[in-house]
Amino acid sequence: MAADLRIQKRLERLRQQADALLGLTQAINRNVPDSELFGLFRKCLEAMGVGKLALFCRPQEAVAWGCMVEWGYPSRLPQIERPDEVLSGKAHAIVDGDTAVEFDLAIPVEHDGEVIAYVVMGDREEGRGMSPSIRYVRFITTLTNVLVVALRNRELTAERIRTAGIERELALAGEMQAMLLPSVLPSDVHRSFSARYRPHHHVGGDYYDAVLLAGGKMAIAMADVSGKGMPAAFLMSNFQAHLHAQFERYDGRLETLVQSLNDRVFSSAQGERFITLFLAIHDPDAGTMSYVNCGHNPPLFVPSKGAATFLGEGCPGLGMLDRLPEVGAGELDVEAGSTLVCFTDGLVEQENEASEAYGEHRLQQLVELERTAGAEALNASIIVDWEQHRGTADPADDTALLTVRFS
Questions:
Q1: What number of helices (H) and strands (E) belong to the chain?
Q2: Which of the ends of the chain has fewer CB neighbours closer than 10 A, N or C?
Q3: Residue 16: φ, ψ to 5°
Q4: Any bridge partners for residue 281, and if so which?
């Protein structure tokens, strides 16, 4: 009779455990919130008489192990940075400041050879036979494994979805970025163009352009938007459209054009992003080039004879301020054989394996050395020299290069 009773009780415990596992698994499959899973975990074990328990897990990329669910302890258990030290040995207490919270048993829960959780257990009442924590230790370990592995899989799935979304956004932004760049530059008897563009991780914020204006004048632009992804791509797309609209009604006042561009960028981005811009207008009849540099890397102008000059005259980047306080414009004579090299920061800030930047000085030396080269040949030389400097170092940013040879 006693044996039959023991068998009956054992079957009842096994049924209870099977129901608990089934209930937790079904809840996981229904994708219920984490808080509900922890609540179900607690309900199952409390029904078995487990009077004290705390579950410690460590979220992805976190340093400390947090207490995800607990009951039966006099005070809330703190985070633990080294559970292998705190929960082992003979101390059997978690110390938080001046408070020591005692426990009876701490079990590491493993999955694929890695500890993924720690179960800290005890009993509210002592001296009443075998502790439920001891009696059900294997089941508690199994139930914890099922719960924590499911939570980890959720984290990994969410991360994969997030990563895929970012990759897709970058790919779409890259496609939009490529559409902004001119497929053919308007070389003519007065100037020849050559351009190179290398995006960084699918999408860049760089933009260059050359637009023929009335009277044979040519607008030359190089720009870079802060930030990445679709917001940056949309801002640059909006900027390009507005820039081309301004070119159609350009009246010769470069400062007024830049103020209008700043108004549009600030209105679109509300100060959250900005655009750096170098904008030049070449007048072949007058043999001059007027320009404004709006916070961009100063382009390099190399006359047919004499020293090269970096063109920095201008104003802050577009969209940084709701109204530009002053726009400074520069002007210089342009003779046949002169060269203008525009670039973005990805060119001059590229470091090599020794963390040395390519730099403006190296660029200037190369361009002055090859001042008689055509635009295409000069660009090719710059890229070869840049690649030799970079070596095996990864590209740090987008790299755009626009060279104009005047004739």
A1: 10, 17
A2: N
A3: -60, -40
A4: 219, 290
Q: Phi, psi (5° rounding) for residue 378?
A: -65, -45
pLDDT digit string (tens) for the chain, length 407 residues: 556 667 677 777 778 888 888 888 898 888 889 999 999 999 998 888 888 899 999 877 778 899 999 998 877 788 888 888 888 766 677 877 677 788 878 888 888 888 889 988 876 555 555 677 777 888 898 999 999 999 888 888 888 878 777 677 666 666 666 677 888 999 999 999 999 998 765 555 789 999 999 999 999 999 999 877 777 878 888 899 999 999 998 988 999 999 999 999 999 888 889 999 999 999 999 999 999 999 999 999 999 988 899 999 999 999 999 999 889 999 999 999 999 999 999 999 999 999 999 999 999 999 999 999 999 999 999 999 999 999 998 887 788 999 999 99
Q: What is the DSSP letter of 198?
A: E
Helix (H) or strand (E) holding 311: none
